[in-house]
Amino acid sequence: MRCPANDNNPRVHRWTYTSAADEVSVVLPDGCVDILVSSCGKTGRDLVRVTDWDFSPRQVRLTAGMSLIGYRLRPGATVSLADLQIENHDPSNLGAEIGDRIRHDQEITEIIDALGLPGSSVERLARQQGVSERTLQRHFKKLSLPTPVFWRQLGRARRAVQALPYRVPLSEIALEYGYSDQAHMTREFVRWFGRTPEQLRRNSSAMDDLAQPGLGNWSEEIPLKPAGLA
């Protein structure tokens, strides 16, 4: 559904989409908040809102002619509409304004990135920070962010998804990304993406959505390729 393009800000990606007909689109969890500008040809008015984090696939109904412009923030970053001077800007060109108002904690951003890596865990990251798991959870809550477990589980799943096009056995992907077995990975994929790994491999539209910038494959990150996948 989305067509992202770098907005010359490492923490913001701008994307656009126009619906040619009435449709129902499925939004998959990406660990990001978007500033969404929607325009309907019938009213000529722009609606600006902030999306929330998704914890499962979500259906969105679009009407014919609806135009969407999104500004996706890097995982862990947030912004408040109250902080934006929207009335002084063209809603279709808010990138600079949003980039100046983003709220993010660099240390938490690094923890979020690390949580999705193979072999990582909330317990290990908390220990490396010299705090307890509960203290780490409180810090995320203070910043109005989902729990560390959310970032761990979704980050791992989104990284593992990037290995599907290599056509290696699913059992090897599951092992490489820290799942107990292939069945464990399948359950997590169904939870987050609504499809099994094999179903995703056959669904080019879903794979295109999951390849867009988000948790586990933000533009600044080096793509993580499992050993032996070439």
UniProtKB/TrEMBL annotation:
Pfam families tied to this protein: HTH_18
Listed GO MF terms: DNA-binding transcription factor activity; sequence-specific DNA binding
Keywords assigned: DNA-binding, Transcription, Transcription regulation
Protein name: AraC family transcriptional regulator
UniProt xrefs under InterPro entries: AraC_XylS_family_regulators (IPR050204), Homeodomain-like_sf (IPR009057), HTH_AraC (IPR018060)
Keyword Cell division appears in the UniProt entry: no
SMART domains: HTH_ARAC
Domain of life assignment: Bacteria
UniProt domain HTH araC/xylS-type: residue ranges: 106-203
Signal peptide: none
Gene3D superfamilies per the UniProt record, alphabetical: Homeodomain-like
